Amino acid sequence: MKRKLAVFGKFLIFFMAMFFTMSSVANAAPKGDPIVIGAITNLSAPYGASLKASMEIAVDDINSSGGILGRPVKLVIEDWKRQVPLALAAYRKLVMNDKCVFVFTEGSEAVAATMQEGAKLFQSYPHIQMAQYASADDLTLETVGKDYEKYKFFFRGFSNMYTQYTPALDMWKVYKDVIGAKKVALIIEDIAYTKTMITGKKGIHSYPPYKELLESKGFDVVLLTQVAAQEKMFLPTFELVAKSGAQLMVWAGAYANHQTVAKQWQESAAKDIDIISFSGASGYKNFMDMTNGGGLGWIAQFPEINIPYTPKSLPFLKKLEAKGVGLMVSSYIGYDGPFLMKAAIEKTKNPKDILGIIKFLETTPVKEAFWLWQFDKYHDPIYGYPYFTCVYGQHQGPDKFVVIFPEKIRKITNPKDKFIPIKELRKMNK
Fold it and tell me: What is the pTM of this model?
């Protein structure tokens, strides 16, 4: 018996030694020349800060688990300060000097310009450009869709305007089925990517003006108005909304200061009318504090809520919070983007095999921290849970921010909570 135990003990020691040796090899510190990725963003904006922090976390996670093919990943961030010439200069630097394999970009104006620069550089400096936070249809439909050979290096990590117009996005279902609104006021920021919301679009993907789309779904659009991108006085707009008889305000745009909007909303004649917005700071869980309570009832796209999409999502969110940065839509592609690159390079076995990486991204779904990533023939992400999905949350109190849509995600995060009209919330929070 003692001999058997001794043999077993030796076997156990050997097994454990082998296990820890294998683990240390698997997680050995990466060595060699780094694989370089770059990002161009507006660091003074919340989404820029979130993109930077998210990419830093991703790169740290990749390097701490052995890198890519045993090599370290290096991240280079450039600030375009919402100036297209700076974006172009940064892009050339990242591609030509830093030899980036992937370059992440944002802002429809900057993306459009850098994409053209990328097309010129691609033959001499093969690379992938991936845009996040850029919705203009033409970025893909008029480029990859019409001249694949010239623009095959370009992918988008965010939904285009066509997606945002179709039932696939289901925004109108939020208005109708969740909020229960019939009369809608549209407030559209006067910026590049929202222009087709006013005009509609014809081409590869055709859609009507957003007003007409909503009317075709049975809504009564009682007001359509625009605000300047840098506007700071919103009380006149809210007066128009109040006089219109609207039951819901839809705020479309990405650059208005939502803190200012919220404070003025709660002081206006439209304070009892629910509001929903596209992304921005309204999605921060501390939005109530940021607005001194003015954000009560606000419905935000891509809310900063700990949603357990995958085993990787919650650990990432904790790391992002530790950096003091809020979760935004840029956080998702900021974190998942480097892992998409990792999956592609590990499949091709060569970071210089850009054509192989392109083919991988075109054909292979990848599940990372948040969504299942799969690109269509125009290099846009496929939309709809478990693929890239818009989530909506509502600020229901100082410490209560809940998912209200989609239903599948609401049920796994806060199954007992649902949308509450602003009138009721105000009574509940007195």
Answer: 0.76
